[in-house]
C-alpha cells in the first residue's frame, strides 16, 4: 500500500495529500479482524445525539499515537508511518497519553447515560488498563469474545451484521476476560438467532 507502484484505489488515496479514511486503511492492514469490528460498529452504534459529530459518540478507532479517532478520519502516508513507530503498550507514554486524553474528552462529550463498548481485545491490558479507570462501569464488552482469537471475533461480528443480531454487553469491570476457546463459528450460510451457539461463548 505504501509502494509508489501500488495502483489500487485505497493506496492512491493514502498516498495523496487528502489521505484515506483510517477505518478503510486499518481494514486493509488487519483483514478479517478489523473488517468485522468496523462493519459491526457501523451497524449497531447508537450515538447519544445523532446530530452531534462522531467524536461525541459513534465509531471510533484506537490509534497507536493519536488517541481515539473517527473511522472516517483521513490518514496520509506520513501519519500511517508514524503509527508504525509507536508500540501499543500501556507503559508507553506516546501511546498512553493521547489515548487517556481522548478518552476523558469522550467521557465528557457523551453525557452520563451513554455506554462505551470496546470491541478490541480485553484479554490483555493494552486497552483495558487505560480505559477502565476513565469510564468505569460504563466501559462494556461482548462476553461472547471471551476465549476467541482475533479472527474468530472478526468472523463473529460479520455474522452478527449479516443476521442483524447485536451481541449482549456486560461491564468490563469485574468480568471474566479469559476462558476456554468456544466452538468454531457456524458457516455464514447458517441463520443466526438469539439462541444460536455462535453467541454462547
Topology (elements, then pairings):
Blueprint lengths: L8 H7 L4 E2 H9 L1 H13 L15 E3 L5 E3 L3 E2 L1 H8 L8 H18 L5 E2 L7 H11 L3 E3 L8 H14 L6 E2 L30
Parallel strand pairs: 5-6
Antiparallel strand pairs: 1-4, 2-3, 6-7
Helix pairs in contact: 2-3, 3-7, 5-6
Report what the structure shows:
Strands 5-6-7 form a 3-stranded mixed β-sheet. It has a two-stranded antiparallel sheet with strand order 1-4. Strands 2-3 form a two-stranded antiparallel ribbon. The longest helix has 18 residues, at 93-110. It is 40% helix and 8% strand. Helix 2 packs antiparallel against helix 3 and helix 3 packs parallel to helix 7. The protein is mostly helical and 201 residues long. The protein contains 7 helices and 7 strands, in the order H-E-H-H-E-E-E-H-H-E-H-E-H-E. Helix 6 links the parallel strand 5 (116-117) and strand 6. The chain has one domain.
Would you summarize the structure shown here?
The protein is mainly α and 201 residues long.
- Please identify the structural class as seen in this structure: mainly alpha
Bulk shape = globular
Largest sheet: number of strands, sense, barrel closure: 3 strands, mixed
- How many discrete structural domains? 1
Order of helices and strands: HEHHEEEHHEHEHE
Number of strands: 7
Mean pLDDT: 84
- Beta-strand percentage range: 5-15%
Query: Order of strands across the biggest sheet?
Result: 5-6-7
Number of helices, counting only DSSP H or I runs of 4 residues or more: 7
Q: What are the low-pLDDT stretches, counting only 5+ consecutive residues below 50?
A: 194-201
How far the N terminus sits from the C terminus, by CA atoms, comes to 36 Å
As a whole number of angstroms, the C-alpha radius of gyration is 17 Å
The percent range for helix content is 25-40%
Amino acid at each position: 500500500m505504501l509502494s509508489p507502484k501500488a495502483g489500487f484505489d485505497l493506496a492512491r488515496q493514502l498516498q495523496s495529500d487528502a489521505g484515506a479514511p483510517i477505518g478503510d486503511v486499518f481494514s486493509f492492514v488487519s483483514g478479517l479482524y478489523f473488517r468485522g469490528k468496523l462493519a459491526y460498529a457501523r451497524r449497531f452504534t447508537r450515538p447519544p445525539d445523532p446530530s452531534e459529530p462522531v467524536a461525541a459518540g459513534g465509531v471510533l478507532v484506537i490509534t497507536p499515537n493519536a488517541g481515539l479517532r473517527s473511522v472516517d478520519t483521513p490518514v496520509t502516508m506520513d501519519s500511517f508511518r508514524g503509527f508504525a513507530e509507536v508500540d501499543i503498550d500501556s507503559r508507553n507514554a506516546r501511546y498512553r497519553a493521547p489515548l487517556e486524553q481522548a478518552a476523558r474528552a469522550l467521557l465528557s462529550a457523551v453525557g452520563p447515560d451513554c455506554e462505551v463498548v470496546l470491541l478490541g481485545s480485553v484479554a490483555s491490558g493494552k486497552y483495558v488498563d487505560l480505559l477502565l479507570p476513565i469510564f468505569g462501569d460504563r466501559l462494556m464488552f461482548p462476553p461472547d469474545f471471551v476465549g476467541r482469537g482475533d479472527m474468530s471475533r472478526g468472523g463473529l461480528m460479520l455474522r452478527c451484521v449479516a443476521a442483524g443480531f447485536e451481541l449482549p454487553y456486560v461491564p468490563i469491570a469485574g468480568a471474566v476476560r479469559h476462558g476456554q476457546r468456544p466452538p468454531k463459528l457456524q458457516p455464514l450460510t447458517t441463520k443466526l438467532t438469539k439462541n444460536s451457539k455462535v453467541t454462547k461463548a
